[in-house]
């Protein structure tokens, strides 16, 4: 396997990538970096080129062409130029972002991007894709989820590693600040005359994340310098707390005499739990059945109905529908089935 000499890159950017790769159970034959052409993903590609070469891993660059901006073709060309600089293959995928999904352009584009990345990973036998989210992105995500009323798991924000559609996505830079990355991108431009693209939506306050970045963040910067590190640390603490609560919920679920497929449990055993643990294990059980988290109102209604049932659970036919599933109770057993 041959490698080109990648451009210089600060050790502070390379080391987290190297550690993320070394932490994998086995050394992968190849990895990919999702590259938009912006400064963050471009510098992640450069750092990954250093780390991959040191470990004898083949590196690919995945670029998703959304076609949402008039400059999209130019961005793709910039990524191709970056791949040539690094001596690695660039693989592109063109996607169409539906404008009528009801989820908003940001969410629809994100879903299309992940679907395309998963397809590329399958086609090219890649099990691990690196994403360039950094500490400032993490802090913005925490703020957005707080304002949207997210629960504990939501406040944990982005995880360093997550598996989706059979692909493990790694975020090695959640502890790295935006300024360090941008400084490295400026040095790359000076060294190799390669310039990252600028997505205008990143500064357009009509988009939610851009509004946080352009309107809220400057106020926080002035009043609480370094707030991003504080908020990102909060996310790590929330992730640890969420893991502990999941372990408690798993123990509680095991105490509820679950069925072999875990699709049912004992109503009487559930009632023996405290109110808070009743609610938490119910959320945990629903999540285990593939259901989206219920709203507070929907969960409160389900809790009320379960608590009001006859002790044997067969005085009436409970049926509460949620996310394509129906929760029912009969003869003292609560179970879930397709609605």
TrEMBL record:
Residues 266-335 form the tRNA(Ile)-lysidine synthase substrate-binding domain. It is found in: Cytoplasm. One of its GO terms (molecular function) is tRNA(Ile)-lysidine synthase activity. One of its GO terms (cellular component) is cytoplasm. Residues 31-214 form the tRNA(Ile)-lysidine/2-thiocytidine synthase N-terminal domain. It catalyses: cytidine(34) in tRNA(Ile2) + L-lysine + ATP = lysidine(34) in tRNA(Ile2) + AMP + diphosphate + H(+). Ligates lysine onto the cytidine present at position 34 of the AUA codon-specific tRNA(Ile) that contains the anticodon CAU, in an ATP-dependent manner. Cytidine is converted to lysidine, thus changing the amino acid specificity of the tRNA from methionine to isoleucine. Belongs to the tRNA(Ile)-lysidine synthase family. The N-terminal region contains the highly conserved SGGXDS motif, predicted to be a P-loop motif involved in ATP binding. This is tRNA(Ile)-lysidine synthase. It comes from Bordetella genomosp. 13.
């Amino acid at each position: 396997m041959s490698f080109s000499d990648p451009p210089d890159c600060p050790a502070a950017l390379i080391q987290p990538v190297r550690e993320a790769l070394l932490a994998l159970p086995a050394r992968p034959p190849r990895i990919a970096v999702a590259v938009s052409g912006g400064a963050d993903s471009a510098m992640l590609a450069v750092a990954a080129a250093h780390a991959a070469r040191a470990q004898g891993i083949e590196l690919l660059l995945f670029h998703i062409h959304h076609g949402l901006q008039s400059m999209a073709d130019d961005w793709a060309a910039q990524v191709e130029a970056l791949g040539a600089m690094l001596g690695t293959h660039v693989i592109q995928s063109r996607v169409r972002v539906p404008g009528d999904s009801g989820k908003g352009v940001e969410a629809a584009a994100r879903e299309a991007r992940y679907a395309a990345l998963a397809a590329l990973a399958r086609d090219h036998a890649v099990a691990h894709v690196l994403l360039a989210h950094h500490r400032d992105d993490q802090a913005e995500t925490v703020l957005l989820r707080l304002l949207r009323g997210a629960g504990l798991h939501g406040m944990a924000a982005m995880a360093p590693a997550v598996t989706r559609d059979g692909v493990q996505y790694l975020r090695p830079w959640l502890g790295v600040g935006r300024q360090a990355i941008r400084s490295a991108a400026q040095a790359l431009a000076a060294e190799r005359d390669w310039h990252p693209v600028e997505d205008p939506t990143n500064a357009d306050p009509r988009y939610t994340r851009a509004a946080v970045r352009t309107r809220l963040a400057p106020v926080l910067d002035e009043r609480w310098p370094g707030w991003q590190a504080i908020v990102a640390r909060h996310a790590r603490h929330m992730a640890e707390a969420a893991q502990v609560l999941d372990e408690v919920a798993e123990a509680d679920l095991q105490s509820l005499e679950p069925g072999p497929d875990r699709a049912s449990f004992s109503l009487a055993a559930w009632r023996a739990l405290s109110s808070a643990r009743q609610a938490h294990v119910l959320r945990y059980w629903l999540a285990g059945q593939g259901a989206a988290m219920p709203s507070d109102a929907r969960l409160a209604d389900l809790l009320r109905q379960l608590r009001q049932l006859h002790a044997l659970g067969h005085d009436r036919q409970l049926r509460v529908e949620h996310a394509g599933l129906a929760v029912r109770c009969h003869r003292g057993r609560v179970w879930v089935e397709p609605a």
